[in-house]
Fold this protein.
Amino acid sequence: MELLEKTDKTDKIHDDLLKSFEEKIDRDDTIEPKDRMPDGYRKHLIRQMQQHAHSEVIGMQPEGNWITRAPSLRAKQILLAKIQDEGGHGLYLYSAAETLGISRDEMISQLHSGKAKYSNIFNYPALTWADIGAIGWLVDGAAIVNQVSLQRTSYGPYSRAMVRICKEESFHQRQGYEIMAKMMKGTKDQQEMARDAMNRWWWPSIMMFGPHDTESPHTGDAVKWKIKRHSNDDLRAKFIDKTVQQAEVIGLTIPDSDLKWNEARGHYDHGPIDWTEFFRVIGGQGPCNKQRMAHHLKVHNDGAWVREAAEAYREKRDKQLLHL
Amino acid sequence: MATDSQLATWEVFIQSKPGANYIHAGSVHASDKQMALQNARDTYTRRGEGTSIWAVPTSEIAASNPDDNDMFFDPANDKMYRMPTFYVMPEGAKAI
């Protein structure tokens, strides 16, 4: 649609195409890669899906830091498997985003230039082993709430990637909660570590759902086109409601003195979120922004010779086959 | 860095158990067939999801155009006699 020049005739074609697209959305049909779609729909998806993919990949860093320091062989194997899953989830999402006509190269260069973002949460450091528990339980827990909702997103490849991811993600949350539960049953120092991790990760976790509905710049079209099925605040409430009980069971307190059950709404009310902090970190001033990006760039550049060698090997093999 | 690329894309099809259809799972990047199969295994079958994998260069896939669906699938629309329910069976006939 975006290729048509603007004239009265093309305006009419444009309107008809948009109408048939919106009818499809209204019928809850999924949109597939070769279907016609408005430019805005494609752009929104490319932005959201690549941000999602980059988040999975950058999210490997805070945890990767703990592989060599895991407290047992069991913990180490689990952490390795979890981080491998995150890499896999990044690949599912890149693969789904590529169906929209953007290349993997382009997405990676947009990440490096700062045009594409990744989830803010990964700009915080994982300081102790309890942080690995908190990341699995709270960060993956929040991600799951969002991803369960996205299983019904209108773009077919995105929806299918989400179904696959959700199947794998619940082990991530459970392993994190198990770590926290274990530490809360441990020594005083271990309990203190768990509390400290809870206190540092709680607010960034509930910020993961993004700005309040009244402030969210991308919500309008995303809801109309059924890319997004639930609002930021609804998803945040869902996460808080289930996490409060889980915290109680293991004896942890959520660091929010305003948190209380609201009978009328059927949800917990929470205290004000520090959005200045949120935008400060998004703006590059978080504790680990520079480190995360520098590491990604280094690994990308260090690995370039592997890709070049693979191509050279294929070319050599193709030539050999020609001479057979 | 001009020669650096993320390698070509391959579409991955997985058979979940012997006898089942191969179902599209997604894509991977690879320079050749062997790498395509290994990457597909690591990406899409970490939990025993498959007994067999096909990897096909994305550029080799022919796909129908959804805009042509009416015309393209039209030949099937007026041939209800291809369905078993089209036929009137004598009353009392069994196992047919």
User: Anything to note?
Assistant: The longest strand of chain B covers residues 22-30.
